[in-house]
Amino acid sequence: MYNQKSYVPFSDYVTGYNEGAQQNVRVIRFADVLLMNAEANNELGNNAAALASLELVRARARAGNVLILPQVTTSDKATLRGAIWHERRVELAMEFDRYFE
């Protein structure tokens, strides 16, 4: 079984949940969803939406310090794809699910 970190049993968090029921719950990080959105928008040619999603991830990592992680401003599709892939490598490092994408 790989990627066990994604499995969260409801019975641990929800009182009164039927513990004998079958469940297949997956948890995805919001940063991963934003990066998927950025990648899809970039491939569709919507650079503004791709940059906005990418900037949300970088703003959280920046934690208010404007001197680190400068804003990505490229409009080139291939360069933006590389920036999104790099951000995915950095953001999802050590989580063991980036390899299978």
Strand and helix map with partners:
Elements: H1 30-43, H2 47-62, H3 77-91
Helix pairs in contact: 1-2, 1-3, 2-3
Q: What does the model show?
A:
- With 101 residues, the chain is an all-alpha fold.
- Helix content is 45%, strand content 0%.
- The chain is built from three helices and no strands.
- The chain has helices at 30-43, 47-62, 77-91.
- It is globular, with a radius of gyration of 17 Å.
How would you concisely characterize the structure shown here?
This protein has helices spanning about 30-45, 45-60, 75-90. It is mainly alpha-helical and about 100 residues long.
Structural key phrases:
45% helix; 3 helices; mainly alpha; 101 residues; globular
The secondary structure category is mainly alpha
Roughly how many Å apart are the termini? 17 Å
Largest sheet: none
Low-confidence stretches: none
Count of strand segments = 0
Q: How many helix segments?
A: 3
Radius of gyration: 17 Å
Report mean pLDDT, rounded to a whole number. Answer: 80
Work out the strand percent.
Answer: under 5%
Shape: globular
Sketch the topology as an H/E string, one letter per element. Answer: HHH
Percent range for helical residues? 40-55%
